[in-house]
Design brief:
The structure is a homotetramer. By secondary structure, chain A is mainly α. Chain A has helices at about 20-40, 60-80, 95, 105-125, 130, 145-170; strands spanning about 135-140, 140-145. In chain A, helix 1 (about 20-40) runs parallel beside helix 6 (about 145-170). The mean pLDDT of chain A is about 95. The interface of C and D includes residues 67, 91, 100 and 112 of C. Chains A, B, C, D: Pfam families: DinB_2. Chains A, B, C, D: Possible metal-dependent hydrolase. Chains A, B, C, D: This is Putative metal-dependent hydrolase P9B03_11655.
Chain lengths: ~170, ~170, ~170, ~170
């Protein structure tokens, strides 16, 4: 059954992560800002208010959320690379999406994502095999190894990209 | 005596913070990316390797550090606005400055700062008096009210801008 | 020398207004209806006819005046928040105090003040730093920034509260 | 044809206004707060979000608007009674409806309306024939005699009462 909250399904991490898999994920992370730009380049203000499901976020909120989320994720990678399994700080994403900067034009977050993903990609490509095994501790969900986290955020970008496509199709207000 | 680590001195928070002071600080935060762009627009790769003091960061590291630091700070503001005095996660700034993405061209972090400071400024300008009294808890330095934190980051930008000017004058390698 | 027209002195606006000052003023505005209720709860009809000075308003007129005045002030705040420095309409407060609704039981205006001050306080607490710098134009007295106006009405409440206390002490008819 | 913006039609002022007409109108103004209380007493938070038409105000906004509007109107009556055809200050009602105090519980504005309408009704009942001929000047719509303005606000209350009934029937979000 189709679940409109998960248009591409939930993230399934392979038991064994191949180096090719990691390369593919990093390429997906690298590609996301361009895909978002393409998908949203011609959107009107009205289209930016469409929701991907009843009471779900609008296209505008989705884009600002991706910027917030990936900024947090980038920081978690750097924490894990410079400390021994640090406990990271979760954030209340629904409340963040209501803060006033989530009403700004989307090009601000798109620009931010472009620059951020360039730094992030360079960082990810530099990771040695032993660095990929480093991890951080999430207070709610436990230990997260970086190699798995790369897959999670490749999925996360595609997940919200599909939300935006869904919002533009369903036109829910 | 001049301390080359603190070319503009350390941050001194006024006992009582006026609304005009906050307006001025926000304007300084808003202006920083332009000032950084201007100061670094014509720099050669060699100039980007100058240090502001012996064993201090290079101009390139300073710029990437400002982007990292202000990304963390922006996140702390949002945490304080959406949770009750959250304990934030410090980071090891010296180790971050050695990670491979700190060797990237500076325009990536400058672009990131431009977009980030636009979102940040909108958020700061929206803060009501009672929101300005909200705070986060830093595990090492204790409670930090947001109004004081605005001053701290207005100072932080000017502090590192002065470092870059100093590096370009002293040409330390 | 004591001036019985100004039992707590005239309003003195600090040169620089701190965020703490604004918080204090808003709390004073919030507290006024309770203070008025307490002070007037047991008053007889005779006591309501006492004047705070020769030919000054009676206690009854004072209470109706506070309701009129704060209703006008609340409207001026909303005008300043929704237009660019609007010119507001002054009113002839002495003539208003002679209109027949100023002879009504005081509980009507006290109830009105309670509800009005709740709406007003929520509005004031929501004001951002840049909104506090907005202003209206008074045809007689010129530009009034909202932050200063908050102080003026914190004072205005205390000013008339002191008038009522003075009237109940001096018992002038 | 039914126009959902005007469920009871627009205000039609009779050519000749009888004293009986004025008495009826004042009684309608007097009755409004009770009618609003009755209609909204059991509403859930969800019901308060219903709109009377697409992109129209919610029930909550309608109630706060009535309080704002009648406060302004009450002030205009007093201005007209104490000055010679004063020019009154219009207000941007749509922008007022977006200010944060329009998100408050409705009982605050209902209480305010109860107290306000008591003062207003006493004032209106006291008006002599010559006072009924006094007027104010509205910068956009010109001269408004008080007797006509009484009819306008009797209509205005019924107009928005019908909007609320319509919103509760249509359940538009």
């Amino acid at each position: 059954m189709h679940d409109e909250r998960y248009p591409i399904g939930e993230f399934q991490c392979p038991q064994s992560i191949s180096t090719q898999q990691i390369t593919d994920w990093i390429e997906q992370i690298e590609a996301l800002p361009q895909q978002l730009n393409k998908l949203t380049a011609q959107l009107t203000d009205a289209e930016l208010t469409y929701r991907y499901r009843e009471n779900g976020w609008t296209v505008r909120q989705l884009i600002h959320h991706i910027a917030d989320s990936h900024m947090n994720s980038y920081i978690r990678f750097k924490l894990a690379l410079t400390e021994i399994e640090p406990t990271i700080k979760p954030y209340a994403e629904d409340k963040w999406a209501e803060l006033p900067d989530s009403a700004l034009p989307i090009d601000i977050s798109l620009t931010c994502l472009e620059a951020l993903h360039r730094r992030w990609t360079v960082l990810l490509e530099s990771l040695s095999n032993s660095q990929l095994k480093r991890s951080f501790h999430h207070p709610d969900t436990g230990t997260m190894p970086l190699e798995q986290c790369i897959g999670l955020y490749a999925w996360h970008g595609a997940h919200h990209l599909a939300h935006i496509e869904q919002a533009l199709t369903l036109k829910i207000r």
